[in-house]
Each structure stands twice: as structure tokens, then as C-alpha cells.
Amino acid sequence: MNTARCPALFDSGLSPCPGNGSNNVCPVERCRYARKIQESIQLIRLGARVGLAGQLTGLEKKTLKRLYRQLIGQPSPSGQLPYSDTWLLGNDRQQFHANLIWNLHRRLNYPERSPARILIDVFEVYQQMTREPRLNLTRTAFVLQMFNSGLWSEHRCLLCRTAFPAPVDSNQNTCPGCRLYFKHRCHRCNAPLMPKTRGVKRKTCSHCGGALI
């Protein structure tokens, strides 16, 4: 017979369950299950489909499908989760947002937290920091998956010397932030670049004559 008890239930101060940050701390199975349900509810409300919620929480698909219908009022959309980083690499703005997600994950990735809780925290902070988020919850999870699978790694920008994420075999040597900024300014003298003729690529700075990136 399982005699494990959640310490929070017997604390006169009504302190929270010590397992709130991890699936392995609280010894009570029902308490861990309730926490997974709570995380699934948050994920679904943030835009997760049943497949993603199942990957992160480990709950059965049947349970998540019923939960999704109760919360959203319709079945979870079908279709595959992202499997290619082509969209993320499509332009510098999308890579900049992926860079932001990566940096938030580095700050919020505590060992005692579950994968679902980490993603929820990262995505909520990302939404608060950006006026127009380019990545939904699924894309955010995919960015983190690229690192966990070893397909993306940390690179170093030659201009600002900060770390940024990119595919392992990428030859990029500047971060997306610098690429966006220096589309409008010279990286040598920082002078604003003159408007260019449509379809003609700038090659040199009109102020210092240096080659542009």
C-alpha cells in the first residue's frame, strides 16, 4: 500500500506542494498527475495542440483530447509538428526572435522544473517582452528542440561578441541583431546608410568607403 503523503496537506501554514517545480519531488502520484493536468491546461490555453502537450507532460492522448475539447470547445487540430528549421532561417527577424527564445531558455531552465513548466515560463515572458511575437508556442518549442537534439548550437558574433543560436553547420558569423541593425548603419563608422535603389545591393559605405556586411 502506498503510504506516501504530500507534506503540503499536513502543514498548518498551507505551504505549496514541494513538487510544484518538478515531477519527481512530491511522492504522491495523484499530486504529480494533478500537476501535469494543470500544466496541460496552461499549454492548451497558450496554443498547444494535443501532440505537443503529450510530449511535454507524458499524459495519455485520450485524456488530452478530452481536456482540449472541454477548454477550447472543439477537437485539437490535426497535422504534424514542425520538423524543419527552414521557416526560422527564412529571415533575420525570425532568427532574432529565435535568439530571444534561446536566451530566455538559458535563464529559466532550472533542473527542478519540468519541460512543460520551462516552456510555459519561456513563452509567457517572450510574449510580455515583444509587441508583435513572431513565434507561437509550437514554434517556440521547436526552437528549444533544435538545441536538445543537437541540430543547433551556440555561435559567437564577430561584431558584438555575444553568443547566438544557429545550425551546427552554419557559416554565419554575425548575430541576427547585428544583421538587422547594420542593414541601416555602417558597421565600421556607424553612419546611417543612404537609401538604396530598389533591387541594388549596397557594397560600400558612402561615408567611410568601407565594405558592408
Model regions low in confidence, pLDDT < 50 over at least 5 residues: 8-15
Strand order of the largest sheet: 1-2
Estimate what percentage of residues fall within beta strands: under 5%
Summarize model confidence as the mean pLDDT: 82
Structure at a glance:
The chain is mainly alpha-helical. It has helices spanning 29-46, 50-57, 61-72, 92-108, 115-129, 137-148, 176-181; strands spanning 152-156, 163-167. Strand 1 and strand 2 (163-167) form a beta hairpin.
What labels would you give this structure?
mainly alpha; two-stranded antiparallel sheet; elongated
Structure explained in plain terms:
- With about 210 residues, the protein is mostly helical.
- Among the domains are: about 60 residues, no CATH class; about 90 residues, no CATH class.
- A hairpin with a 6-residue loop joins β1 and β2.
- It has a two-stranded antiparallel ribbon with strand order 1-2.
- About 5% of the residues have low confidence.
- The chain has seven helices and two strands; from the N terminus they run ααααααββα.
- α1 packs across α3 and α1 packs parallel to α5.
